[in-house]
TrEMBL record:
It comes from Candidatus Nanosyncoccus alces. It holds the Pfam family adh_short_C2. This is 3-oxoacyl-[acyl-carrier-protein] reductase FabG. NCBIfam families: PRK07231.1 (NF005559). It comes from the Bacteria.
């Protein structure tokens, strides 16, 4: 079960962090990959690791997920190279962390464009390709912060954008269900990435996590793999519109 041999997976945000971890998970299952990010040099460095892990073929493309032109060009290049796209993992994101009173228009617009509008643009472009083959698996990386608020970090735009991704997932799942395309979301808890390390390594936040996370720890590398591989698989054909927290229990209390 859960083999991805013969499948083509597109992963945004594949130059670092969770995007790389989940791209490697797809590679280990034998998928071919289209990896997207703004830092093309990081993608080129990453390609050999994917091949070594088991990817059949890897195409690296420079793509700013806030740019409609970049996304449409990437979709065209992926279809030209492979003739199809089976899996789309929307993982790219960034955030300006401020509270509702302090946040500027520019900080709000940046976060919404990067974490919410980009998911719409990516899905629009690649779902069109999936519709041609009546098959697709769309997986959106939201956040447990898309399900709840928090008292430790003021990051209102991030909460808002990830909450929007959660319900965008449900809307797309309903809309594309008869096209053989599923759409699901994963809501990670606290994992180390380039964007989170500085905060997660502070004594104050580690104490906060021990109180708020029932497992009393952050997520480890690889602990998202099972969720993303399952949702990307052919076997998950009757699973759509699901919002799956992988958060050590944060959202259960």
């Amino acid at each position: 079960m859960f083999s991805l041999k013969g499948r083509v997976a597109v992963v945004s945000g594949a130059s670092s962090g969770l995007g790389q971890q989940m791209a490697l998970a797809f590679a280990r299952q034998g998928a071919s990959l289209v990896i997207l990010a703004r830092r093309i040099e990081r993608l080129e460095e990453f390609k050999p690791k994917l091949i070594k892990a088991g990817a059949e073929k890897v195409l690296a493309l420079k793509c700013d997920v806030t740019s409609t032109e970049d996304i449409d060009a990437a979709a065209e290049a992926a279809e030209k190279e492979f003739g199809k796209v089976d899996i789309l993992l929307n993982c790219a994101g960034s955030s300006k962390d401020k509270g509702v009173v302090e946040m500027t228009d520019e900080e709000w617009d940046f976060t919404i464009a990067t974490d919410e509008t980009s998911v719409f643009k990516m899905t629009r472009a690649f779902a069109k390709i999936m519709q041609k083959n009546k098959y697709g698996r769309i997986i959106n990386i939201a956040s447990m912060y898309g399900l709840v608020g928090n008292t430790e970090i003021h990051t209102v735009a991030y909460h808002t954008s990830k909450g929007a991704v959660v319900n965008f997932t449900r809307a797309v799942a309903a809309e594309l269900a008869t096209d053989g395309i599923t759409c699901n979301a994963i809501c990670p808890g606290y994992f180390y990435t380039e964007l989170t390390t500085a905060v997660l390594d502070t004594d104050r936040f580690q104490e906060f996590a021990k109180t708020m996370v029932p497992m009393q720890r952050y997520g480890k590398p690889g602990e998202l793999d099972a969720a993303v591989v399952f949702l990307a698989s052919e076997e998950a054909s009757y699973v759509t519109g699901v919002v799956l927290p992988v958060d050590g229990g944060y959202t259960c209390i």
